[in-house]
Amino acid sequence: MKNMKKITAIILLLTCGQFIGRAQELRCNVTVNSNQIAQVDRAIFDALEKGIFEFVNNTRWTDEIYQDYERIECGFFINVTEQEKDNAGQVVADRYKGTLTINARRPIYNTSFFSTLLNYQENDFSFQYIPFQQFYYSENTSMSNLTAIIAFYCYYIIALDHESFSPDGGDKYMVKAQNIVNMSQNIPDRGWKANEGNNNRYWMVNDYLNPAFKPLRELMYNYHRLGFDVLQQNMESGRTQIIESLKSLDKVWTQRPNAFLLQVFFSTKRNEIIAMLKDTPLNAKAELIPVLKKIDPAHASKYDAVNN
C-alpha cells in the first residue's frame, strides 16, 4: 500500500530534490470551539486543543515508516456546547458536552484533488478534561473516555486509508480500533456499548469487520484505487469502476437496510458522488441513481437533480 502512495507523490520528490525524513502517520488539524461556554477560562480549551494536536500528530500509531508526503490528512473539530450538570442541576467540574466532527481524506493519483475517506459527526459527545492533562495511548491499558475516542478514530482513519490503497488493507488497524472499543466497556460515557443503540463506535467497527459488509470494504479499494486514481489516465475505465462499486452497496442494503455504516458512508461521500454524476453518461446514471435513492432516500431529490 505504501508503494502506491509513493507513486502518487513521486513528482513531489523529484521537484524537492532532497530526502524527506520519517514522519508520523497523521497530519491532523485540531480545533476546539468553546464560544458557548461563558464561565470557563479559555486557556483550558486552548490547552485541550494543543494536547489533542500533539497527541494525534506525535504518537506513532503503526510500525510502518511514513514519509512526510504519505501522512494522512485529517481533522478533529470539537464544539463544546455546555458543562455537564448532576441530577441536582449543579455543574460537574471538568466535564463537558458537545459535538465531535472527524474528517479524513486521501489524494487522487496524478491530480491536485482529494477524495474524502471519513466525514462524520458525533452529536452525543461528552468528556472529562482536567486542565492541562497529558494524553497517552496504551494498547493494553484502559484510557480516559476522551483519549480512547481520539485513539479510536486515529486507527479508524488509518484503516480506511489502507483499505483505499489495498484490498482489505485496513484489517490490522480496524482490529486495533475494535480493541479500543473492547477496552472501553467500563467507561460510563456513551458510545462504546452495543446496547446503547446501533449508531455508535461499537457498531462502526463491529459492522466494518462483519462479513455482511464485505461489499463496502471491496468498494473502498475499487472506488478509490481502481476508480478515482485512474480517471486522469482513463476516464471511462475509472468511472465504470466507481459506478460498479457503488451499485454493489445494494448487496449490503439487502441484508442490512438502513445500516449505520451506510449512513456514515453517504455522509462522507454524497457530495463527491453527486459531483461525479454530473459528468456521467445518461445510461450509467439511469442504472446507478435508483440504487442511490433506495439506500439514501432522505437525499433522493439531490440525485434526481443531477438529471436536470
List the keywords.
19% strand, 12 helices, four-stranded mixed beta sheet, single chain, alpha+beta, two-stranded antiparallel sheet, 308 residues
Structure description:
The chain has helices at residues 2-8, 10-16, 42-58, 145-165, 171-183, 201-208, 214-224, 235-247, 249-255, 260-277, 282-295, 300-305, and strands at residues 22-23, 26-33, 66-67, 72-85, 91-107, 114-128. With 308 residues, it is an alpha+beta fold. It has a domain at 214-308. Strands 2-4-5-6 form a 4-stranded mixed sheet. Helix 7 runs antiparallel to helix 8 (235-247) and helix 8 (235-247) packs parallel to helix 11. The longest helix is centred in the middle third of the chain and has 21 residues, at 145-165. It starts with a helix and ends with a helix. The relative contact order is 0.09.
Quick take:
The protein is α+β, with helices and mostly antiparallel strands. Helices cover 46% and strands 19% of the residues.
The spatial strand order of the largest sheet comes to 2-4-5-6
The DSSP helix count reads: 12
Beta-strand content bin: 15-25%
**What are the low-pLDDT stretches, counting only 5+ consecutive residues below 50?**
6-22
> What is the number of strand segments?
6
Q: In this structure, how is the largest beta sheet organized?
A: 4 strands, mixed
Query: What helical percentage do the residues reach?
Result: 40-55%
